[in-house]
Amino acid sequence: MTKVAEIDNRIDELKRQLENVKGGKSEVYARIVGYYRSVANWNLGKSEEYGERVNFSELSHDTAMRIKTAEKPVKTEPVAIEAETEAIEINFAEKKMAMENGDVATYSFFFKETCPNCPPVKAVIDSVELEGTKINVDSSNGLTEAMNSSVYSAPTVILYNAEGSEIYRTGNADKLKSFLKVQSA
Q1: Torsional sign, CA 162, 167, 169, 172
Q2: For burial by CB atoms within 10 Å, which of 104, 125, 160, 179 has the most?
Q3: ω into residue 73 within 30 of 0, thus cis?
Q4: Which of 65-79, 122-136, 153-167 has the lowest mean pLDDT?
């Protein structure tokens, strides 16, 4: 009996100690470009990306990619890869033709107040006679709209045709200027 009582007392003591345990900050390391680094030392954008990462396993990666892209699995035959590359080139050519034909109807410009790259992109947008919306992603409504449009960085400009389909997307002022030069001519 004394043995059982000692064990019960020890269990009660350990339970009291467990209730008073104060946790400390854990150091999390993740692999970037071949080496491990503390996540605490990452910049804000990389830290956000870390929160969206999914650990790899054949099943989860395959399932996640299918859900994310909502497309059929990529075939690994060389012919399929060539066909896919060809489709991308045709798709870009179609978008370029749409631009040359003046099919760009509207735009959405996603920006932040503190973004150093946003003013040059805004200047390009302001120089073109297009109707559109400027969305500040610092606001909760703007952030929600950015997430709904799959915008993950500022600045981002999305150009749409008259039917509302996306034609072009960029965050680079020079690329936007190059793409819109037909429109301003």
Answers
A1: negative
A2: 104
A3: no
A4: 65-79
